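Example record

One chain of 333 residues, shown exactly as stored in the release files.
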Amino acid sequence: MDENPVILVTAGYDHTIRMWDALKSTCTRTIPYTTESQINRMALSSDKHYLAVAGNPSVSLYDVFGPSDSPVLKLDGHKANVTAVEFTLDYKFLATSSEDETIRWWDVYAGNCKRVLKNDSVVNDIAIHPDPRQELIVSCDQKGAVRVWSWRHKENRCEVVPRPDVAIRSVAISPNGQLVVAGNDLGQLFMYRLIIDNSPQTGRIVELEPYLNFHAHGDSRIMRVLFSSNGYYLATCSADQSTKLWRLTEAPNAAVNGTYEDGDRASVDLMHTLVYHNRWVWDAAFSRDSDYLVTVSTDTRAALWSVYTGEIIREFKGHQKGIVCVALNDATA
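Predicted structure tokens for this chain:
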């Protein structure tokens, strides 16, 4: 086995999980997903060994390099579609969200649920804060709320509702943990400064400070938002059949305490509009070096793009029905 293999995985409505040779655009392995559910989201562990697959209503873990096509672990507990799944950096824990209006925190080694956080509407997406404590989870939901949760204390630490009753479809946290971005059903992108105060006098205070907002995809639904690994780029996938790449420029004179004067803000500039798919673009994944982006669509195709030029490099064909999720881990040791 290659010491640093590129793991590229796609899945969707045809009940198959496909692994690809990213250089040759060929499918190297097909794992049948034997439940009646479609696959909603996937996540790879940081060591590349485990693939978490979110379906309805369970999460299945597969050994990427193992010979068996059966999951090595199945996590049951959600009562409806699992909408998102994410490993912690040390891959000891998993966070999931669901249409059953809950977020769950799982112990991967023990194979059980440690916490259940109860929301008041369908949870569409989650992101784990990169803080070493691995305590905070950011969520977005069908009623338009973005919330920051402490799974340890089972409480909602703060929330914002940028457009009441307009669903927030996707949420992401910048690699440095300082920015939260959310995309809604009307094509709007909302960016917040995540302020965490660990004052010994007041305890841990968490706030979401409005930072930027704009229409990223006209009035078309944003399906996915994600930061690149280096934090310089943002990708947005949309029902308008496009993916947009944005360059984030941080304000040079930003105050250390997170407050800003007029005009002293970051800017988000459009780099490229990636047009290739002819149906909704559901998901995307950046390479570890942030040079490449993979997109997937219900047109049954996946595409590899150059972040710098905005040009398509390779296409991946083989799925018989729409692809709705992708996972990529090409990190070197």
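Notes: Confidence is low (pLDDT under 50) at residues 252-260.
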